[in-house]
Amino acid sequence: EAQVTQNPRYLITVTGKKLTVTCSQNMNHEYMSWYRQDPGLGLRQIYYSMNVEVTDKGDVPEGYKVSRKEKRNFPLILESPSPNQTSLYFCASSPSIRGRSTDTQYFGPGTRLTVL
Amino acid sequence: DQQVKQNSPSLSVQEGRISILNCDYTNSMFDYFLWYKKYPAEGPTFLISISSIKDKNEDGRFTVFLNKSAKHLSLHIVPSQPGDSAVYFCAAIGVIIQGAQKLVFGQGTRLTINP
Fold first, then answer.
1. Nearest C-alpha of chain B: how many angstroms from A79?
2. Residue A113's CB: how many other CB atoms inside 10 A?
3. Which of B32, B51, B89 sits opposite A42 (nearest CB)?
4. Cys-Cys crosslink for B63: which of A4, A45, B30, B76, Cβ 3.0 to 4.6 Å?
5. What is the DSSP pairing of strand A10-13 with strand A111-115?
6. Do A43 and B44 touch (CB under 8 A)?
7. Strands, E, within B60-108: which ranges?
8. Closest CB to B103 among A41, A102, A106
9. What confidence tens digit (pLDDT) does each residue in B27-75 have?
């Protein structure tokens, strides 16, 4: 089954404790992206990657890191989480960002993060 | 700087009637528009899209209308069904640096279909 998986689905942590949210897709997609969803703000892009070893900042990259060492994985790293990073996070992938295929962007189920 | 705006946070519609969800955008470089649907505890799923060269696209009960001069698009669902109750996100694509495209989302509208 074609899917994007994220782990963990729920996480409560404390300020300053490094954490990683994993994202994996089994569709051999080139493009992957991380979003956060906040009330009244919709989905905002954090980072994206057009292919292996190619990553770039989205609209709200501060406080986050990513890496793309393999095509299927795109982990989101919070080196020193703060309460304003409490949010619902979504990973997404699509076959290509240069072509007109982003209507087939697949989203993971989401990770709800609470930073105390 | 909200480039894609959904000004109605929520909408309540009677089952069987038409649901109309609205979306406005400010960036004239956007050339492709999409609607995503999101149920609780799930990720958004693609619903329907429209290119800027068209003014209407229909898929079953769902129709998206685009008014480029007004920078406005709308999603019509008819007839509305209880399973349509979800949050709907409008999104737009425009070319950014290095030829890459970027998907920009609106704030979302929570649609509730009442029996």
1. 25
2. 21
3. B89
4. B76
5. parallel
6. yes
7. 62-67, 72-77, 86-95, 101-105
8. A102
9. 888 888 999 999 998 999 999 999 899 999 999 999 999 999 999 999 9
Tokens 């051999």 found at: A28
Token reading at B41: 């505890």
Query: What three-state secondary structure class fits B48?
Result: strand
B46 CB near a chain A CB, below 8 Å? Answer: yes
The single-letter DSSP state of residue B53 is T
Q: For B11-39, how does the pLDDT look when each residue is reduced to its tens digit (9 = 90+)?
A: 999 999 999 999 999 988 888 899 999 99
Q: For A6, which DSSP code?
A: E
Beta bridge partners of B59: B62
Which tokens go with B108?
Answer: 């979302």
Q: How many residues does chain A have?
A: 116
Name the residue among B62, B43, B42, B40 with its Cα closest to residue B110: B40
CA dist B10 and A106 (Å) reads 25
- Take residue A103 and report the two structure tokens written for it: 């209507």
Q: Which amino acid is at A55?
A: T
